[in-house]
Amino acid sequence: MGRTNLYIHYDAVTNHVMTRAINFEIQDFPKHYFPQNIILAESTLDFGRFDPQTNFKLIRGASEIQVYFESAHKEKMRISNWIDFETLEDMHGLTAQEIAEILYLFHANKALKSAFFYKLQNNYVYLTLPNGLNKVYYRHVQHFYPRFQRAMVVHMSELLNESRSLFFMRKAKVQALPLEIAEQVAPIFVNGLKVNFQQAYVKGSRHFVPLDIVEDELTLLTLDQAPKNHIGFIIYDSNAEKWSLELTLDRD
């Protein structure tokens, strides 16, 4: 399996995070913020029911939502665009204009005004875009960090194990990326960050993954970049089982 570069671009105005090669899993949700109800943009045959008042397809209850997410992951199905909401009663208070705004959000992949609705009290809007992009609006952008931390562990594990024999060598286990490192990298997300696993290299037991600014130039995601343009490195020491971060100080 070839190496895959990660892409993260945070829009601080609308509070959405655009990503590529970072999937979405149940474990990414903070425990107290797991959706209790969601509105689906698409009608799935096996999940949810139509609400007669709004004609939205709904999945109600955290357990049913969890089954939907897990089934989609297991069957490698595309998850519908969705938005969460707290109570059915308040959702029924949506005006025709607000319903139109939600439908526009689902189909245009952008908000007319805001992606966060007072009557829904939603914390997320999940959208899938062309070219493998994923766009999630976060009421609290810190909720993205667990996704980033998990993705880094997954891809670093693949990097460490890419040359190991399937049968004769024990697979290396990568420790969790510390939250403090995710928080240190986070300010760079606004610039469009490529976590450059394709140009990662090893020195002794230390694995260096370059960081590059690509803004919204997605063609740069699969192209090698000059080492002088790297803005830093995320490093994993497989002997010490420890992560570290090195950033170039003379860059904005």
Sheet with the most strands, sense and barrel status: 13 strands, antiparallel
Structure class = alpha+beta
The best one-word shape is elongated
**Residue share in β-strands:** 15-25%
State the share of residues found in helices, binned by percent. 10-25%
**Element order: H for helix, E for strand:** EEEEEHEHHEEHHEEEEE
| Terminal CA distance | 35 Å
The structural domain count equals 2
* Radius of gyration from the alpha-carbon trace, in angstroms: 20 Å
Q: What is the subunit arrangement here?
A: single chain
- Kindly report the average pLDDT value: 93
Q: Which regions have little confidence, pLDDT < 50, spanning 5+ residues?
A: none
Helices, by number, come to 5
Give a count of the beta strands, DSSP E runs of length 2 or more: 13
Question: What can you see in these coordinates?
Answer:
The protein is of the alpha+beta class. Helices cover 22% and strands 24% of the residues. The chain is built from 5 helices and 13 strands. The longest helix has 17 residues. It is elongated, with a radius of gyration of 20 Å. The mean pLDDT is 93.
Strand and helix layout:
Layout: E1 6-11, E2 16-20, E3 37-40, E4 49-50, E5 57-60, H1 62-75, E6 82-84, H2 88-91, H3 96-108, E7 124-128, E8 133-138, H4 145-161, H5 179-185, E9 193-195, E10 201-203, E11 206-213, E12 232-237, E13 242-247
Antiparallel strand pairs: 1-2, 1-9, 2-8, 3-5, 3-6, 4-5, 6-7, 7-8, 9-11, 10-11, 11-12, 12-13
